[in-house]
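Hi everyone, sorry if this is the wrong subforum. Our group has a chain we'd like a structural model of before ordering constructs, and none of us has done structure prediction before. Sequence below.
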Amino acid sequence: MTDFFKGIPAVKFEGADSTNEFAFRHYNPDQVLLGKPMKDHLRFAVAWWHSFAWPGGDPFGGQTFDRPWFGDSIAHAKLKADVAFEMFDILGAPFFCFHDADIRPEGATFAESKRNLEEIVDYIGEKITGSKTRLLWGTANLFSHRRFMSGAATNPDPDVFAWSAATVKSCMDATLKLGGQNYVLWGGREGYETLLNTNLGLEAEHAGRFLQMVVDYKYKIGFKGAILIEPKPQEPSKHQYDYDVATVYGFLKRFGLEKEVQVNIEQGHAILAGHSFEHEIALATSLGIFGSIDMNRNDYQSGWDTDQFPNNHAEKALAFYEILRAGGYTTGGTNFDAKVRRQSLDPADLILAHVGGMDTCARALKSAAAMLEGGELEAARRARYAGWEAPAAQAMLKSDLAAISADVLARGIDPQPVSGKQERLENLWNRYI
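Answer:
Right subforum, don't worry. Here is the predicted structure as tokens:
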């Protein structure tokens, strides 16, 4: 045991009237909604990078956190793991997620980094055996080091492509060994700054081949989980190849991977792409590629990805509604890709940020489940498209323009606009949240 969280109790559910800040007011893991416990609907995960690896810097200032595990040794990495699992136990968090660089020290060579990763994976594996917390997904950091400044799979240097492929292999091996349920590819540098030095077609071909290799390796090692891509617009590259769900789907179709790869959708990225979170989720479910989510929020006055913990249940409720409407998660979950503010220095701040985020999501889930169970919104949607249930309407979809035109003339069709009833439906939604 470490003493980093000394004096902080295990967080339990106490109900909406509780004034204990170290208690859940809405997240009751065993409460059954739509036939399933809340913990199985939400499948919360803690992000190792933001919670334990981030030093508190921003574009205008450096480290503000002084953590006892900050350092470049295996001993520091093991202490970090000890603290992480203590926090998982305090929160009752069912899952965690990691990048390789979050959990192991960087070596002087690839071989040394690989040995460090393997050693710390063995250590984390021992921690898992004594914990209720499991691995939701692993991933590789192919964006922080200067070697990735021009991308990983899309880098103009074939040696960087090779390094990246070897790194992903080692991270997939680690994810399998730790019983991970998914593997994520986060293309943080897969994009470009200017067309003056970029071959778009070549970079796309290389990215597609890279992903095909990942899928092939999944089957080679017998990994049963999902392969996920996380859409990300603009930041850090001016033009990102994985801009949003629609862009990723087009990429998957191009390389014949739409049945093999799903998406991990982040709230902050959806907003930066000019969409709503619920839009990206609904689109992914309609395309059959929805996998998992990263839960956070942006500061809408800043205009960039600030990775803050969610605190507005109404904003998240429609997102959970679309997840429930599609049948919920399979291997995915709700990963808090969020970090405390750089002025929030205390260990308690780290715990309470997750408590607030978990309660916000639980409250949103309850609203979404009640709305789905009530059925009014789904009934309104069905009523709006009811005309398409008629045999003649279905037959028209198998017809051609000439036949349809003749039918319009013969029947003298003169369709009149029908209200979309948006405000009535917004009022209905507001009654649930």
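For your construct planning: The longest strand covers residues 134-139. The chain has a mean pLDDT of 97.
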